Amino acid sequence: MKKILIIIGGFVLLLSACKPKEIAPPTLNLSSQMIDLGAITMASTSSLTLTQNGEGTIAYTINSNKSWLKLSKSSATIMASDVVNLSTVITATDLTEGDNTATLTVTPTINGVLSPAVTVAVKGIFKTTTVAVATATVDFGTITANKSVFIKIAKVGTENLTYDVTSDKTWLTIDKTTGTLTATDSLRLTANTQTLPSGNQTATLTITPKVNGVVGKPSTIAVKVNYDDAITGNIEKRTLTKNETWGGAINLNGSVVVPRGLTLTIRPGTKIRVRAVPNDRILLEINGKLLMNGDASNIIELRSANATPSNRDWQGIEANGDIEVSYCFIKDANAGLDFLFSNLKATPTKTPVIHHCLFDNCFNAIQFFSSNFESTLYNLTFRRLGFSSLTTNDVKKLTLNDTELLSTSTDIGVYSTGLDFKINNANFIAKQYVFYENIFVSDATRHSNNNVTITNCFGFSTAGGFGKNGNVFTNTTPATTANSKIGCGFIDKYPASGRMAAVVEGNEMSAEEILAYKKKLYLRLTQK
Question: Is the pTM of this model over 0.85?
Answer without folding.
Answer: no
